[in-house]
Structure formats: C-alpha cells, structure tokens
Recover the amino acids of this structure.
C-alpha cells in the first residue's frame, strides 16, 4: 500500500513538471514569435506613433528582445527615450523571462522522458482526466480575457509585478505607443492556442491508445 502511494505521489509530481514544461514552452514560443509584431507594426503603422521608420522600429523591437532574452546584454539601448521607471520595469520583465527559461530547462528532461515513456507503453490516456480539468480552467481563463481584457491585463500585471512601473507615461516612455493592447491580446491568443493544441494532441493520442487497449481485451 505504501509503495503504491509513493508511486502515485511520484507520478503526480512528474505530471506537475509536465504541466510547467508545457506552459513555459508555450510562453517561450509566444514571446519569440516575431512575425506577430511585424504584422501589427505594418498593419497599424506603429512606427509613425513615435516618429520612426518601419526599419527603425524593427531595430528597437529586436534590441528590446535581445535585452530581455540574453544575460550578456546588460544594457537596454533604444533610440527611443525611456524613463527610470520604464527601465526598472524592463529589468523586472527580464527577470521573469529568465524565470520562465529556467523552469523550461529544468523541467524539459523529466517532462519529455515521462511523455516518451507513456507513449511507448501506450499509457497517455492516464492524462485524460487531468487534461479535462485543465480544459475547464482554460475555458474560464479565455472567458475572462474575451469578456474584459482590460481588467484581465491589469490583474495580470498586479500579480506579476510588485510596483506600478508597468504603468507607462507615453510622454516619458513613447515605446508604449508601439505596444498596443491588441498586440498583447494576440500574444495571449497565441499562448492559449499553442497550449490548447499541446493538450489536445496528448488527449487525442491517449484516447486512441485507450481505444486500442480496450479493443485488444
């Protein structure tokens, strides 16, 4: 009985690691999906909001991402002015980026090994109940975003950040004019879409495996 409990706790722990891996993997895909920003920049002519050319804004965006993504880039060099509070906010975002990448790297091996083991043993179906529960949470998350994205966006920042540096003054930090709320809504959409696709893929394969197991009996 004791060994069964240990096995159950161990598997539940690995399933949590799998969830963390999927979340951080989807976040990583989203924040590095450059074509999304290129489309918004071109469609809404965001470069005109700050008096830059399209190429100029592209360069600023890539500089910002380089600062947020790479530990060896320690200074944020933009052609646009940035306030002290704005700089502090991007420092906070950089720390969150590396928290995400750290969790992704640390969970990758146990999560992928677990998925491979379940696939090999045709046991992916054991995740179906967990995926169903997650899908209900995800549905609520989507409803909140769709019904009132502005309030969701505020709550999101209040949870992640301990200060108000994320509230930009366009006069001091004109870069905020190049980051419209529609862009962030699209980012959340990509995250939700990739995460849902990941869960759906596991669910479908698991359901197919379970059907075959039942058929063999």
């Amino acid at each position: 009985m004791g060994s069964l409990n240990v096995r159950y706790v161990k598997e539940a722990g690995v399933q949590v690691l799998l969830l963390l891996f999927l979340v951080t993997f989807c976040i990583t895909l989203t924040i590095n999906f450059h074509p999304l920003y290129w489309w918004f920049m071109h469609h809404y002519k965001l470069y005109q909001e700050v008096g830059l050319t399209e190429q100029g804004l592209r360069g600023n965006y890539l500089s910002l991402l380089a600062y947020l993504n790479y530990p060896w880039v320690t200074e944020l060099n933009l052609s646009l002015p940035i306030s002290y509070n704005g700089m502090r906010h991007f420092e906070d975002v950089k720390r969150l980026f590396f928290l995400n990448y750290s969790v992704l790297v640390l969970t990758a091996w146990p999560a992928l090994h677990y998925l491979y083991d379940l696939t090999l043993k045709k046991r992916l179906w054991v995740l179906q109940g967990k995926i169903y529960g997650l899908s209900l949470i995800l549905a609520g998350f989507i409803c909140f975003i769709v019904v009132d994205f502005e309030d969701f966006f505020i709550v999101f920042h209040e949870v992640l950040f301990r200060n108000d540096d994320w509230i930009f003054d366009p006069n001091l930090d004109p870069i905020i004019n190049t980051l419209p709320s529609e862009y962030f809504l699209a980012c959340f959409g990509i995250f939700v879409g990739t995460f849902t696709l990941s869960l759906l893929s596991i669910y479908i394969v698991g359901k197919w495996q379970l059907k075959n197991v039942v058929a063999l009996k």
User: Anything to note?
Assistant: The chain has a mean pLDDT of 91. The radius of gyration is 21 Å. Residues 84-120 form the longest helix (37 residues).
